[in-house]
Specification:
The protein is of the alpha+beta class. It is built from five helices and 13 strands. The chain is 25% helix and 44% strand. The longest helix has 23 residues, at 112-134.
Length: 270
């Protein structure tokens, strides 16, 4: 739901915009997109927690799943290791892993024609999110704040708000029209450290199709591994939206840990 809920945590806009900032932040976004793609080369553990909220923001239901992501014959295999933050038994994990590895081998053995429809659907979704993120540096106005020191590294700080007169190129990018917040960038590597965002007004995307409510928030953080590679650390999205005639309020947290590079060949069609 990044494309629906990427909006900004309020920032103070004191400094004047710097023309050099836009191409610099465009490169930061491009690196972030490559980093998320780089997950294909790593083993890791991922936890996803989802809460459905009522109109007052109170939790109606909650689920959490923690999975291990590995490879089988170069194909990604993912299996559950904890449910609602309760670890599965060793026997349950063994069964989950065996099924995941079997499914990966089966997928690897499918004929190209059998995989085409699923791959095309996945590619369309990935392309939509890339296009949405690539528009970020054009749709927003950035103003710098004094740098910060984080973990001994210089971090550049920019507040942002909608760019006056900008016309979104995609339906999803209309969310930028109601967005302001703060982005932090590692000065040496030019990599995204964090992004905090919040919608300050309701934004409609498409005619009667969908809208994102005021106060929807997103936070993204990346981590620098000892190898110098940057990868996602966590993502928190809290949003209220209308999709067609359905109103949705949801809180979603995604966390990554235990990154280990995969040394074998990675089959890119997984």
């Amino acid at each position: 739901m990044i494309a629906i809920s990427l909006a900004a945590a309020a920032g103070v806009m004191n400094a004047q915009p710097d023309p050099a900032t836009r191409p610099f932040l465009r490169s930061v976004v491009e690196k972030y997109i490559r980093n998320t793609g780089g997950l294909q080369d790593y083993r890791f553990v991922r936890r996803v927690a989802r809460a459905e909220l009522d109109s007052n923001g109170n939790r109606k239901s909650w689920t959490a799943s923690t999975s291990k992501v590995d490879f089988e014959a170069g194909v990604r295999a993912t299996w559950l290791i904890a449910r609602d933050d309760r670890p599965l038994t060793a026997e349950e994990i063994q069964k989950e892993e065996a099924e995941a590895r079997r499914a990966a081998r089966e997928w690897r053995g499918k004929l190209p024609a059998e995989r085409k429809e699923i791959e095309e659907k996945r590619d369309r979704k990935a392309r939509m999110e890339r296009d949405f993120l690539n528009e970020l540096s054009e749709a927003l106005e950035f103003r710098s704040r004094p740098p910060e020191i984080r973990g001994g590294r210089v971090t550049l700080v920019y507040d942002f708000e909608p760019r006056a007169g900008y016309s979104p190129k995609s339906r999803e990018a209309h969310v930028y029209e109601g967005t302001r917040g703060t982005v932090r960038v590692d000065q040496e590597d030019g990599q995204l450290v964090s992004l905090n965002a919040e919608t300050f007004r309701e934004v409609t995307m498409g005619i009667f199709l969908a809208s994102v409510s005021r106060g929807s928030r997103v936070e993204l953080n990346q981590v620098r591994l000892d190898s110098g590679v940057w990868l996602p650390l966590n993502q928190t999205i809290n949003y209220a939206a209308r999709i067609l005639f359905k109103h949705v309020r949801r809180h979603v947290e995604t966390q990554y840990q235990g990154y280990q590079p995969y040394s074998g060949p990675v089959w890119r069609g997984d």
